[in-house]
Amino acid sequence: MAKPRMLCATDLSQHSQKVLARAVAMANQLDATLTLLHVMTAEQGGHAFPRASERIELQLKSIRPPLRRAPIIRLDAGDFMPRLAAVANETAPDLIVLGSQQRKPLEPLIAATARDLAALVRRSVLIVKRDSQARYGSVLIAAEQSPGFDHVLRTASSLRLLESESVAIIHGFEARYRGPLYASGFDLNASKRNIEQWELAARRRLLQNLDAADVASDHFRLVFVQSRPLREIQREVRRVGPDLLVIATKDHPALDRVMRASVGNDALRNIECDILMVPMP
Q1: In this predicted model, what pLDDT tens digit does every residue of 107-130 receive, in sequence order?
Q2: Enclosing domain of residue 87
Q3: Cα–Cα distance between 65 and 61 in angstroms, integer?
Q4: Would 106 be classed as within a structural domain?
């Protein structure tokens, strides 16, 4: 089988050190080929390449345990996003690793860099926020009510994320039924029965997705709630404090919708866990 491929962008800052550390840890875990990309401005040009290469080597030497497979170091000049997309299209990585820039809110990063990159190259993008090389111990997956969601599960499985000690899949849904007397409180029993039916249907669909992805779900915690997905993601992130949040992206990425919907609530905008965005097929 071909070795997995990863692409990690670094700006050589202290903040990017933890991004590089996470990329190294995952590359070792997956026995992946890791390409490190540093994009300089056009003004800096090629004369800065030797120094940049030396700094990348120094950053790598400070990481323990070290990278087992020698990395591929790519140095480029120009605008960051077009160059990153070009290298991603050329190297076809299974995972792109980026950092959430310090002192900048998560919203612009997700809405611009990660979304645009996923749209351009249709690759999974990992946003690193935490400084840790340990395996993700707690993973929270936001379920999409879509026949293509099994692709997200297969991607998470291929990255060995479903081997984590705690894996929860949360699916927020809104029951369509509202009886004529519901608002007056006289139709609560019928509404409750309908909600239970919707939950059973949602559970059945999710289990079918797990089966389609050939993923054993016996150690997963499945959470079904009658509420807006955004609200439940916020609540579950606060309650569990996961190391990683996995969200599917479409033509209009799920996380972008979440961010637009939570302008007045920074619970998600300021979450401190890493975020994996997986494009839907």
Answers
A1: 444 445 565 666 667 889 898 888
A2: 5-99
A3: 9
A4: no
